[in-house]
Design brief:
The chain is mainly alpha-helical. It has 3 helices and no strands.
Length: about 90
Amino acid sequence: MSNKFENKALKQINTIDLIIERKGLMARILKYFLKPKITRALKALEKDPEWKATISDLNYQTEKLKDMLDNVKDDPDIDPRLKSIAKYL
């Protein structure tokens, strides 16, 4: 009885491994062909002033949010449960 179960489980494991291996190979091939296009697109974005402004604004907002979270941690009037959540963010 267990031998049938083991054979069936082994067959399923081998099938899953084969699927993962095929997808991994396809991903590597796709990555190889698309890599030059992606690097060209990123280089073009580095020169774009709107992109630079967007990234700069995003960095500013991130720092502002971090400061606000630090203030929440230090404020004694805030609920302790919120403080415990804020330390993970």
